[in-house]
Write the structure tokens for this entry.
Amino acid sequence: MRRGDGKRIETSIFFVLLLYGAYLALRTAIEPAERRARLSAIYSAVAFVAVPFLMFVVPRIYFTLHPDPLLNTRGKVDMDPRIRAVFLAMLVGFTTLFFWMLSLRVRVARLLQRREET
């Protein structure tokens, strides 16, 4: 293993987390709701431009120990069948988890709305 392998992606993720942390600090530091929403939207738009660069460009500038991309020159996905099975199971699991959590959020919002109406 070469020294420094993986450090670029870790550094990129660190900077993305710093961007997110600055966003949260901005949200809590500004008091008027309208001004907070406007400044947060502007910051989000600016930070959004940096995220693809930090996550996709910087780690791929140099060679690493990571395998070749999954999409080959023919445009087909080359994935080992065992990895594909795990990936699809994870995809189904997290999608199910997302929709379950979304339904919980909708139910809580409806309950709060009913409580405010009474």
